[in-house]
Design goal:
Layout: H1 3-42, H2 63-71, E1 80-84, H3 95-99, E2 104-109, H4 112-121, E3 126-130, H5 138-144, E4 152-155, H6 161-171, E5 177-181, E6 192-193, H7 216-224, E7 229-233, E8 239-243, H8 265-271, H9 275-282, E9 288-289
Parallel strand pairs: 1-2, 1-4, 2-3, 4-5
Antiparallel strand pairs: 5-8, 6-9, 7-8
């Protein structure tokens, strides 16, 4: 074999591609650090207006800032998180905590390819799991959790979020701060989710980006059973935030002017109709009422 053939077949496809991916992921990581620094600096926080808490370094919709502000009100912190649906570690709700705040925690991603990307930049204190989560495999997460009362619990898997979260809470998980994605197509009042299907894939339905997940009222009904207080949604209408009042300093949450509902800006842009129009598209598909 010639030297040229050896380099082409033995080194370039494997090692060169590996190093290129490593460089690319670390470049994106540095960009996230830069966004964090700039976004956090220009905030003008008003304690009663959650929209002013927002900033995004690693998160998509201001979650980094809201989580950071809520953490400042904890009576006791264990600097631990659990996130289900963490992607490649560059755009989620806990990588800011891991990389900047040096939290420990578990990040769970179902895609093997995306999980392998996450391993390139994974902080030492983070346990990264490649796991497709259903009501059986979720037991792995509960057993691996160092704390059953993590500072932050986040879930965003565009499907069975309600069932996975309910199962963890039934097992005894009691996070201090909860971040969940809600589907604004259900509107502010309907308390709905989709029926349980362990093989569910939002992209394999008749209405990708529309028929999935949980309504904001559905989440409120679930968490109210466990004593949680709704705090706000963020201004892009994707995530909702809840806290366990027992873990917070007295009066920390007084007089908050919650954003109770926002249209998901991404769905509004994609479908060009408001949540009522979006719901018309899926109203005849199977839905479960959350009491």
């Amino acid at each position: 074999m010639s030297v040229k053939s050896f380099l082409k077949k033995k080194i370039f496809p494997a090692e060169a591609n590996f190093y290129a991916k490593d460089i690319y992921m670390n470049l994106l990581l540095n960009n996230a650090f830069s966004r964090s620094a700039v976004s956090a600096t220009i905030r003008n926080i008003n304690p009663v207006k959650p929209g002013t808490w927002e900033f995004s370094g690693f998160s998509q919709n201001g979650e980094d800032g809201i989580i950071e502000y809520l953490l400042s009100g904890l009576q006791h912190s264990n600097k631990y998180f659990i996130e289900i649906g963490s992607g490649n570690g560059l755009e989620n709700n806990t990588s800011y905590l891991a990389h900047v705040k040096k939290f420990a925690g578990i990040q769970v991603e179902g895609s093997a390819y995306t999980h392998n990307e996450a391993l390139i930049i994974k902080p030492f204190l983070v346990e990264s799991l490649n796991l497709f989560v259903n009501e059986i495999t979720v037991q792995v997460i509960y057993e691996k959790a160092l704390y059953k009362n993590p500072d932050v619990f986040s879930i965003d898997i565009d499907g069975m979020d309600y069932y996975i979260t309910r199962h963890l809470f039934e097992k005894g998980l009691k996070p201090k701060i909860i971040v969940v994605e809600y589907n604004s197509a259900f509107g502010p009042e309907r308390s709905n989710t989709i029926p349980y299907n362990p093989e569910f894939n939002m992209f394999h339905t008749d209405h990708p980006y529309l028929y999935y997940g949980v309504s904001i009222s559905g989440w409120k009904n679930l968490f109210a059973k466990y004593g949680y207080q709704f705090i706000t949604v963020e201004t892009n209408g994707v995530n909702a935030f809840f806290i366990n009042p027992e873990d917070f300093n007295e009066n920390f949450m007084n007089n908050i002017q919650a954003i109770v509902f926002k249209e998901n800006i991404h769905q509004l842009r994609l479908f060009r109709r408001d949540f009522e129009g979006q719901f018309e598209m899926i109203k005849n598909l199977p839905l479960l009422t959350i009491e």
